[in-house]
Please model this.
Amino acid sequence: MHHPCAIQPEEHASYRDDKMGKSTLFESERMMVGLNAFEPGQAHKQHTHATMDKLYHVLEGTGVCTLGDDEVPFTQGQMVVAPAGVPHGIRNDSTERLLVLAVLAPAPG
Model:
């Protein structure tokens, strides 16, 4: 994708039957912006980034974000931040699709 440009992130979603779909919308050495697309019942299991902060913003649907030992329900329009070093993951526990914008800083790699 060529930037700068205005986009509708939802148009770049990649849903998969076998696992969460991922799409990268932008990447530099400072930041990565992507989409995580979940069918009902799918999850991105808990993991940790030692040196990256991650922001999740729900574009469509509802789900649960795990942060350490806490489970945080979130829905369209809401945002959750996972600071570096905090284990985090997402689960779509609904019967509808879940689409989450993910911003990582600094970018992985």
